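Hey team,

Filing this mostly as a record. A colleague (T.K.) asked me to run one chain through the structure pipeline before their review meeting, and I want the input and output archived in the tracker in case anyone asks later how it was produced. No errors, nothing strange. Just documentation.

Input sequence:
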Amino acid sequence: MTNKIIALEGVEVIAPIGYYEQERINKNTFITDISVEIEVADNSIDDEIRNTLDYERLSDIISCEMEKECKLMEDAAQRILNGVKSISADASRILIVIRKINPPLAAKVANSKITLDWKHNS
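Output structure:
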């Protein structure tokens, strides 16, 4: 068996996510990384997209879920996780990292971050 990891890094979106109402009104810049691990039989790897996870579908899930207004990045990460699980029943691990660029804090902070690391219970 082979573990195949399909990933997108640095997906940038402007989204209405933030604890404070003003953050949701003005929106924030977020950077999302996602990787999906799929175990495949060694002889099943070929040059057809039907045998892998389409990057475009991953990007669409991220964009769709991040554009929904919410207070916490954790909520957006969970929705992204649910979306990926719905299109990839074979996923054995899904790792999602969302960074909020320049969060509204008193100190200068490059980004805040949430990581969601889901593993299939075998």
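Quick notes for T.K.: The mean pLDDT is 91. Residues 101 and 111 are 4 Å apart (CA to CA).
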